[in-house]
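Cross-check.
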Amino acid sequence: MASGEEMEWELRRSLVRFGRMLYRLGFMPGTSGNLSVRLDEERILATPTGRSKFLLRSEDMVIVDLDGRQLAGTRKVTSEIGMHLAIYRLRPDADAVIHSHPPIATGFACSGRPLDEPLCSEAIMTLGVVPLAPYATTGTHGLVESLEPLIPHHSAILLANHGAVTCGNDLLDAFLKMETVEHFAHICLVAHQLGSVRLLEGHAIDQLHEARARYLAGAHQGGRMVRQMVAG
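Predicted model, tokenized:
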């Protein structure tokens, strides 16, 4: 069984790894975007502000409490930590949060369009509807307020004129959801450019919703088992 310190450093390395993957995908250009993960019931491990995700090191990560007070780290925590903390507060099942700027999905967000059309069975299964939160200035409490009504019901949300945020039962889960958001946005864009959109309807959607409910129940059960094993 890994010790608490070993688990912390593994999570630090995971933040580095997924940050670089998101950077290479073009989701976190420059110093944009941020990632975080739960350390325990009282602490969050997060990326620092003003740092390229391609250049991040494990020791750059910052620890904060659930009120955003910095407990450890030589760098300053991301200015958007409030968004992460709101998700952890409203989604006790979430153990990781990713905020990034996937270009096509962000294009939808900048056009005032959620990803809510039943076009693709995989997107319905893994994401459900991806709503659009109203615009609010980045790094402010207004951004938190714009997200709060949506967080309990959605694991992927577009931020108007800004980007996207996903949460999951670990960093891989949150990463895969972000990747799927961009993939679905690309499909929606191409379908509308082709001009012959065919929406799923009726019984097909009902079946997908039933399958999604089974998928989520299995994922949540698996996540609980992993957390219990880590807790000893």
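Strands lie at 34-38, 43-46, 62-65, 70-72, 96-100, 132-133, 156-159, 163-168. Residues 4-231 form a domain with the L-fuculose-1-phosphate Aldolase fold (CATH 3.40.225.10). Passed to J.P. for a second look.
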